[in-house]
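Lab meeting notes turned into a lecture example. A postdoc, R.K., suggested we walk through two folding results consecutively so the class can see how the record format repeats. The first protein's sequence and structure tokens come next.
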Amino acid sequence: MRAAESGVVRVRNISTASNDSNLLTNLRTASNELLHPLILACATRHAKLVQIALQSIQRLVQHRVLEASCANVVVSELWGLVEVECEELRVLQTVPPLVSADLLVTGNTLAKCIVMCFRMHFAKDPVVINAASAAVRQLVGCVFERVIQEDGVFNNAELTVVASSGGRPSPRSAPPTLRPCAADAYMLFKDLCLLINAKPSVWLLGIHEMTRTLGLELIESVLKSYPGVFFR
């Protein structure tokens, strides 16, 4: 309760001391402090508190208040909720905006978001299954959409190549010549191919099952929707 009251007071103080030009910047600076009571509420696993907290987190994401440094904390807490099957629908409403917003989550944190939705795709509740199915498709599309946007930002720019340390490239990482969003897409596509062949994933850690039909459908979708990512 004290943490929540402190957060409300902090928002009011920032609002009073800011103008239209610096309000968002000041809120972002305090995003970790504003997020703290919401994380505590999620940690209670009390349904009503979790609902309110996740709605508030969605608002922070929607208004671009959440900083990338806070995203890992949010994803870890969402993962904990999925583990105990707490408010899965609310989690599914929170993950896609988090992934879609300003590259808040990348790399292993992004993989964790995708894994959460995959796991809920095999939940017991049909409503959760349907919502998770839509979320999985949305996240996979978002990963490849990011590559298009990244290429637009770095159009005609040279790739930053990470110097090789010698030896063969690790199968658990993307080629060092890829930019961050392209690296995420590479690892996702690679894991989808592994999973449909009943082999363990290397990036999407924690996926216990995936039907071959779903995997093939996702691969077909990205090949049709984002051919430019693959053919250059």
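The second example is placed directly after the first for contrast:
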Amino acid sequence: MNPDFERYYQRIRAQQKRESFVWSLILVLLYIGAGKLSEFNLHTLWTSFPHFFDYLSETLPVLHWRLLFANGHTEGSLAYWGYRLPIQLPLIWETLNLALAATLLSVAVSVVLGFLAANNTQSPPGIRFTLRALLAFLRTMPELAWAVMFVMAFGIGVIPGFLALALHTVGCLTKLFYEAIESASERPVRGLAACGASVFQRMRFGLWPQVKPIVLSYSFMRLEINFRQSTILGLVGAGGIGQELMTNIKLDRYDQVSLTMLLIIVVVSILDALSGRLRRQVVEGGK
């Protein structure tokens, strides 16, 4: 090996090691400083963590194998554990409808706003700047904060949850969509422009076919996220199964807490599997 190259290689390697050490030290110091400012304590976390499992064990139902399939009046049976299923199942359905409605409306609005906010769609600069500032504000406010404000304005129910999910979803999806539009190839657009196509035709036939699989993929992913978020929003009175979960926690109905959580986990798992399969079929079919 060339001696000059060997010396150069060793010098670069030594420089990389020094830089890695310095940056690692900076990150450790920042981590320690952030922990001090936020009063984060590993010892407290370690000693308190077992209490989580204590609470979790309290939520487990008391089931007896011999009485497992007895009627709902027999303590220790599945029917006794699930006596609130007639209330919880409609709430699960309400939560799913809430997430679906908010996602569908948000996707439709976000597609339009995405084309208006993109740099390569010939929209006026003032509109692009205003839209991006508004979208940044919508993304900055978490769904929970929106839900609290809307609950105070509209009262307890699904309307606050719907509005909170829709606003935050529009802010997030529009950013993803206009970035995808800006990353699309300009060749089809230039070809259509050379043929005398209008601006709308260039967007419709030049850009939309390229970004359609991405839009569908992000939309399915957002549906999964919105279902989880709608469960959390119910904790502040925004409707759905989350409200039932909070009620059970407040009333110390520990067995019903576990049943509600089990329903949420099952529905989320099914939704993830179905949306993942649909996303793959649509995206691969779109390609």
